[in-house]
């Protein structure tokens, strides 16, 4: 396959198909070099055309709750009282800096997720 920038969906699909053909290429071969370059080209194409928006802080909290089988009452240690937890999860109250610190420390929710931009 001639290596070139992926300019459209057809180029992308052809590159993915060729990558699959080369998947078991041995390191140090021309096929392996082609595999590595195709991987980079595909990665760049996907970054541009298939952007994944980061979760909102509330979505990140709810995701962690689901992962760990947590209930709203379990968040009291990080957020305060039951009413505040409820308001934050409903989106009617913002997290404080201290809430963010505690949620990160106690539940290992990434800081990047907790300080994300509020999406309407």
Secondary-structure blueprint:
Elements: H1 9-22, H2 30-49, H3 57-68, H4 76-79, H5 82-90, H6 97-107, H7 111-114
Helix content: 55-70%
From the spread of the alpha carbons, the general shape counts as: elongated
Number of strands: 0
Query: CATH class of the largest domain, please?
Result: Mainly Alpha
- Architecture of the largest domain, CATH level 2? Orthogonal Bundle
**Number of contiguous helices:** 7
Which radius of gyration do the C-alpha atoms yield? 22 Å
Strand content: under 5%
Question: Alpha-carbon distance between the termini?
Answer: 44 Å
Low-confidence stretches: none
Count of structural domains:
2
Largest beta sheet, briefly? none
* Average pLDDT metric: 91
According to CATH, the fold-level topology of the largest domain is 434 Repressor (Amino-terminal Domain)
CATH superfamily of the largest domain: lambda repressor-like DNA-binding domains
Structural class: mainly alpha
